[in-house]
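Regression test case RT-17, inverse folding.

Input:
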């Protein structure tokens, strides 16, 4: 009976140690999160091939809200702005490969522009825009 007791304690101890290791690595991975990427001028210009045209906000298919949350966490966007007022305009290039989504800031005529690659279905990065 005592051997069974020690065996049970050993399995419980292994379970606790494994759970602690998993929790440690999950916390470390969360701390190593990348901040949103600021686009270079060259990459930004390459996404504007063939001119840009304004489209309706509802025509934009890409879900930018997880990226907006990252921008807010990095304090690039203010948390005070309501999400319903955040998207100012959406532009698409003539080849329909890229979308440029203008997000309002607290300052007048200053925007954060998010560039989305429609083919890869991912955000390339953001850029500050003063109009």
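Golden output:
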């Amino acid at each position: 009976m005592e051997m069974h007791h020690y065996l049970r304690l050993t399995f419980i101890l292994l379970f606790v140690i494994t759970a602690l290791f998993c929790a440690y690595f999950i916390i470390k991975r969360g701390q190593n999160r990348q901040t949103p990427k600021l686009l270079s001028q060259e990459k930004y210009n390459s996404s504007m091939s063939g001119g840009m045209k304004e489209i309706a906000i509802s025509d934009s298919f890409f879900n930018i809200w997880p990226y907006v949350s990252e921008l807010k966490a990095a304090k690039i966007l203010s948390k005070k702005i309501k999400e319903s007022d955040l998207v100012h305009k959406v532009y698409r290039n003539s080849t329909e490969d890229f979308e440029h989504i203008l997000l309002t800031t607290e300052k007048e005529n200053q925007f954060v522009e998010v560039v989305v690659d429609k083919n890869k279905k991912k955000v390339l990065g953001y850029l500050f825009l003063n109009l």
